[in-house]
Write a structure and sequence with these properties.
By secondary structure, the protein is mainly α. It has helices spanning 5-18, 20-34. It has a domain at 5-39.
């Protein structure tokens, strides 16, 4: 969690600037998860989660196909 915290804080700040409503919705959802109200069981890192998003993905193409 420590390794991604800085980039997650940056993503949170950008979202707060470009779409305050979406940022507020994400923050509310993550707060509910941290309270244990939206999960069947707690995860050990639940309280450390730094993002307003519940997950993130990285898509990487080693070779860009012609288009």
């Amino acid at each position: 969690m420590d390794q991604v915290q800085h980039s997650e804080v940056l993503c949170n700040a950008i979202m707060a600037l470009i779409s305050r409503e979406l940022y507020d919705s994400g923050l509310k959802a993550i707060e509910l998860i941290k309270q244990g109200r939206e999960m069947d069981k707690r995860h050990p890192h639940q309280q450390l989660w730094p993002s307003i998003f519940s997950g993130s993905q990285v898509i990487v193409n080693w070779v860009t196909p012609p288009h």
